[in-house]
Amino acid sequence: MSAEIKADVSPSRAGPRALLLRARGAHSPHASASTEPAPGRAAWLALGACTGAAALLQLDGTLITVALPSVARGLHVSSAATSSVLSVYFVAYGIALLPGGMLVDRFGSRRLALLGLALFAVGAAAGALAGDIAVLLLARGLQGVGAGLVSPAALAGAVSGFPPERRGAALGIWGAASGVSNLAGPLLGGALTVTLGWRADWWGLVPLAALAALSVARLLPPRAHEEALRSGGGVLRNRNVGAAAVLAALTFAVMIGCFFLAEQYLQHSAHYSALAAAGALILVAVLVGAAAPLAGRLSDRTGERAPLVAGFMAAALGLGVLALPGVSLTGPLAILLLVPVGIGLGLLFVPTSRAALNSMPTTLHGRTSAILSAGRLLGAALGAGLAGLALSAGTDAQAVHHALLFACGACLVVGLPAAALLRSAPGAAIPAAPPAAG
Fold first, then answer.
1. 48: burial class by Cβ within 10 Å (0-12, 13-18, 19+)?
2. Residue 425: helix, strand or coil by DSSP?
3. In order of start, what are the domains of the chain with their CATH numbers?
4. Helix or strand run (H / E) with residue 82
């Protein structure tokens, strides 16, 4: 046996062979978390490397958004045309996700993460040099393809060194890093755009991608894939994966939709500046990042349903009160009501990923991660679209109240039943059916 495979099956790294045996039923659903060794240093370092790669994708979206008004002036195009800079990226991202997940399962997280980061960096450099909007769109498309490879590779790699009953803690750190990235993006983007111009936002992504690639290359070990891979249909037919994808889509639909509502109402109707309006989003991002580690620990201790139910109830409470006619959408009360919304949303990220990944063997974690990411992208697009439709007749308080009431109802009518579909037990993975012989 090679040194590489020996490293993968060591207790400290809990490689794919060991995790696959666990997922096939080497432990019962009632096993105690204490029966598994604590993840070693290598597992935490790999988590850090993969979290950094995923955080780069989060940073990109908010950083580039800040630069778009300057892009319009610099390339002499309309503001509407610059919106396609975001659309092309997310379309390419979404198209690449499922093939990317299959490639992760075939060739390993490390290789696909490095390939994706290389494409992302080349696209960023091409965007920085773009002389017209067409070249910029092509560059953003290349970045999107890279992101579609990095996303499933990073999530699968992040939990690869953790036994199923300890993945909540790892995913909690993952969620907190996403929250920090969403905070840093507008700040970094604004500073680069004001001081150096919009091209600096694209140039800034190049060394960040190189740093992420260096970390992945050094800290994420190559994995042996000695078991035959099953068809991806096994992932799609898994009840936990399907329910988790619905929950991920709903979480992002509510979050992105409410962000859009807040920005439009505060700037157009309440006459807040862009910076002041962003303050509400920063508060929610902080709360989401703070709640994610708590959700991870709670998931490992009690299973996924408890944090999911608590999260949807908290978000529904805040949104429901904000939706009441006569309740002010600005001022101290509105800020106070954002607290349960932010905490509630923060409780939802980790349990959905944990439930889906723990229901499948590690040899299918790439495809599982891709399905979760696709659900999030679809939910974000749906949330933004529905919010825009709700405000099509105007951005007055009544329209916002109605939209928030709809979001509250979605948490209760869709979120809670979907959470009830998850099958989980504290401190154990759900045994997956063994792959077909051959």
1. middle
2. strand
3. 41-220 (1.20.1250.20), 232-430 (1.20.1250.20)
4. helix 79-107
Which range has the top average pLDDT, 222-226, 267-271, 402-406? Answer: 402-406
CB neighbourhood size of 367 (10 A):
30
Q: How far is CA 294 from CA 166, 290, 426, in A?
A: 13, 7, 15
CA-based nearest residue to 183, from 1, 342, 398, 31: 342
Cα–Cα distance, 299 to 166 (Å, whole number)? 9
175-221 residue pLDDT tens: 888 777 877 777 788 788 888 988 999 999 999 999 999 999 999 88
| Strand, coil or helix: 131 | coil
Phi, psi of 425 (to 5 degrees): -140, 145
Sort 153 into a burial class: Cβ within 10 Å, 0-12 / 13-18 / 19+.
buried
Q: Which amino acid is at 433?
A: A
Are the C-beta atoms of residues 172 and 292 closer than 8 Å to each other?
Answer: yes
Distance (Å, whole) CA 312 – CA 410? 9
- How many whole angstroms separate alpha carbon 306 and alpha carbon 323? 25
Packing angle of the helix pair 305-322, 332-358 (nearest 10 deg) = 150
First to last CA, the chain: 21
Q: What is the pTM of this model?
A: 0.75
What confidence tens digit (pLDDT) does each residue in 373-394 have? 898 888 888 887 888 788 777 7
Q: What is residue 162's DSSP assignment?
A: S
